[in-house]
């Protein structure tokens, strides 16, 4: 009985290792994040420094993490990944909590919850698609661990805050400004 159990455990572990190895062979290069340059807007100023116009497909200004108010970063961490500074890319407790919550939600018809960390969201938003399948989640998890090893928490947070979409044309930071001469 013990030998059969051990063989089963070894077979399952081997299968899991093979799946992880296979998925990791198809991963995009996460090191491109170090060279990330978002599409920013062109601003035209008058001689006296007044802003005349802004041109861009997206109204985006890349803001270094040091320029983002502490309250803004704390608010996003609180809402999206309260254990951001404690985990290495994956929040195992959060994943287990989400699995339990989602199992009961499926039975009762309740709302499903997610367990992606900020680092996983960076991996998905920059390097992967929005497909909702196990393979993409595995890739996201592997990339998150690699990103955590290659970048500081501040660099990860800076990428996240400069890339997330808040809806209705709004980006995370800074607040949207209208060009001179436009009406509200």
From TrEMBL:
One of its GO terms (biological process) is regulation of cell shape. Keywords: Cell shape, Cell wall biogenesis/degradation, Membrane, Peptidoglycan synthesis, Transferase, Transmembrane, Transmembrane helix. This is Glycosyl transferase family 51 domain-containing protein. It comes from Methyloceanibacter marginalis. One of its GO terms (cellular component) is membrane. InterPro entries: Glyco_trans_51, Glycosyltr_51/Transpeptidase, Lysozyme-like_dom_sf, PBP_transglycosylase. The keyword Ligase does not apply. The lineage of its organism: Bacteria, Pseudomonadati, Pseudomonadota, Alphaproteobacteria, Hyphomicrobiales. Transmembrane segments: none annotated. The keyword Transmembrane helix applies.
């Amino acid at each position: 009985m013990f030998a059969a159990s051990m063989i089963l455990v070894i077979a399952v572990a081997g299968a899991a290792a093979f799946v992880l190895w296979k998925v990791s062979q198809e991963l995009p290069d996460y090191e491109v994040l170090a060279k990330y340059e978002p599409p920013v807007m062109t601003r035209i100023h008058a001689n006296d420094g007044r802003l005349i116009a802004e041109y861009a497909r997206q109204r985006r200004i890349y803001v270094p993490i040091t320029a983002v108010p502490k309250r803004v970063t704390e608010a996003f961490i609180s809402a999206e990944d309260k254990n951001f500074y404690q985990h290495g890319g994956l929040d195992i407790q959060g994943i287990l909590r989400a699995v339990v919550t989602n199992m009961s939600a499926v039975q009762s018809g309740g709302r499903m919850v997610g367990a992606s960390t900020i680092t996983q969201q960076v991996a998905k938003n920059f390097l992967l698609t929005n497909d909702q399948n196990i393979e993409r989640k595995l890739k996201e998890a592997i990339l998150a661990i690699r990103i955590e090893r290659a970048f500081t928490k501040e660099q990860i947070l800076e990428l996240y805050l400069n890339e997330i979409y808040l809806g209705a044309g709004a980006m995370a930071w800074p607040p949207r400004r209208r060009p001179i001469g436009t009406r509200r």
